[in-house]
Amino acid sequence: MSEEKKKIMFTVRKPPHGTIYVYEGLEVKLIMAAYDADISVVFMDDGVYALKAGQDTKALGIKGFEATYGVLVDYEIQKVFVDRTSMEERGLTEEDLLVIGEDEDTEEPIRPKVVDSAELGAMMAEQHNILSF
Amino acid sequence: MLHTVNKSPFQNSALDSCLRFANAGDSILLLEDGVYGAASGTAKSPLVEGALAKKIKVYALGADLSARALKETIKGVEITDYAGFVDLVVANKIHSWL
To answer: Does A44 touch chain B (CB under 8 A)?
Structure first.
């Protein structure tokens, strides 16, 4: 067998449409997902706004990414986490977050998992690489 | 793990967030505008003071402190140079809080 699978974490800390970071970051995640790596994505600080359901970018003349986020699970990206503190500071709840896929068997929607900072900190310590967007 | 912070704590929440996720035993290097976080006697000094109390090692890049005339730094913050920066990068996994 080859060496241990690489654990790669992406952090998203910027709000969605003011800069290109969230868009480009999503591209990188989808590319990395094609490789045999253990990928996780953490939304924190203003990055949690990228997960707010119902973003309508038509009038901005850009495609948006809600459709792509909606099928992250199909791209084998299942470890999607939201920092609870960042979410609550912004007046958001789990119900405000967009869906990232559906369960193969039950067809139940899958949402990002809301996690405490301490647990996320422990996850960060286990990573081979952390990439910030 | 080595966390790098290059933004002023008065500008955005990078340092604040970094400290929320950093674990005891981690190191933080303040560089570029991040060194404002190492200054003593500011409204943001308690951030780094709290990190030191949590057994997190805090470094500040001397060249960036000098360039900003920051002479009074928080007690316990270690001032490092570019060679020390390289040593930290070689010895740790990196998490850049851009």
So the answer is: yes
Superfamily of domain A7-132: DsrEFH-like (3.40.1260.10)
Q: Tell me if chain B has a CB within 8 Å of the CB of A130.
A: yes
Domain residue ranges of chain B, discontinuous segments joined by +: 2-97
pTM recorded for the entire structure: 0.88
Distance CA B71, CA A107 (A): 60
The ipTM value here is 0.79
Domain extent listing, chain A: 7-132
> Is 3.40.1260.10 the CATH classification of the domain at B2-97?
yes
| Cβ pair A73, A104 in contact under 8 A | no
Distance from CA of B71 to the nearest CA of A (A): 31
By the 8 A CB rule, do A33 and A77 touch? Answer: yes
For A54-98, the pLDDT digits (tens) are: 999 999 998 898 889 989 999 999 999 999 999 999 999 999 999
Give the nearest partner residue to B22 out of A44, A121, A129, using CB atoms: A121
Would you call B66 an interface residue with chain A, using a CB distance cutoff of 8 Å? no
